[in-house]
UniProtKB/TrEMBL annotation:
InterPro entries: AB_hydrolase_3, AB_hydrolase_fold, GDXG_lipolytic_enzyme
PANTHER family per record: AB HYDROLASE SUPERFAMILY PROTEIN C4A8.06C, ALPHA_BETA HYDROLASE FOLD-3 DOMAIN-CONTAINING PROTEIN-RELATED
Boundaries of every Alpha/beta hydrolase fold-3 domain copy: 69-272
Lineage: Bacteria, Bacillati, Actinomycetota, Actinomycetes, Kitasatosporales
E.C. number(s) listed in UniProt: 3.1.1.1
Pfam families assigned: Abhydrolase_3
Record's keyword annotation contains Manganese: no
Record keywords, A-Z: Hydrolase
Gene Ontology MF, one: carboxylesterase activity
Gene coding for it: nlhH_4
Protein name, entry field: Alpha/beta hydrolase
Presence of the UniProt keyword Hydrolase in the record: yes
Amino acid sequence: MDPELEAFIPLFPRADLTDPVTERKNFADLAAAVPAPDVTRLDIEDRTVPADPDVPVRIYRPREAQGAVVWLHGGGFVMGDLETEHPWAARMADLSGTVVISVGYRLAPEHPYPAALDDAYAVLAWTAEHAAGLGIDPERIAVGGHSAGAGLAAALALRARDRQGPPIRYQLLNQPGLDDRQETWSQRHFTDTPWMNRDKVTASWRHYLGGAPATPDAAPARAADLSGLPAAYIATAELCPNRDEDITYALRLLQAGVSVELHQWPGTFHGSQAILSAEVSQRQIAELGAVLRRALAE
């Protein structure tokens, strides 16, 4: 493990999703401890997207931005909101020069699948429909996120393809949760890795699926056909249970004719990019912004 990251492990709370309500507070406390982002170059606005029910969003607009990303926070499908994602959404907007539309989707277990995906799709459709009013090019809309949010972004790309919905230029998937089956080597063996481990992944999927069988709409790795999807960037952490399913998904996208950039970060663990004092974490965040900037450039 990267020694700068290893020093922070004793400060992390126990990786557990047995009680999601309690864990939401712990997650919020961790997010509050992240150094505040520089928002001086951004216009920030809270809006509500009409849907059933309505979906709260926070829009981060860099000056002269033309593209947009529908951005989905992490938190194992059960934690996180617009506030916990603020440090990362603001940084993404600033680094990429892209309008970031951060989605406050509904959380499991109170709202299991497909609630979060329905919310995300409503925001994608709204973004495309109101592109002119948002000052963005409707041909330059991406989807992206961290962890569970990245899994939702991958599912969103599949749903948009299958429903012939709004065109998506790019999918930015950072350590996505893609496969509920947990059959890969990393899922079977990473039982005590920091922040995310096998038991926590199991609980996350249990809460999200709510006892229903998984479909490709819920777990993108189950999709038989990955052709016709937007180009993708996939980042993995070496000591993350999701690592192998993410690498496999990248290979399957390539074999389906989808252009993919894959970066496996050595010495890192799930979510360690949040430790901004570490040099490798700074490089991870900078790369996400640079990749999105390039993907949505003319």
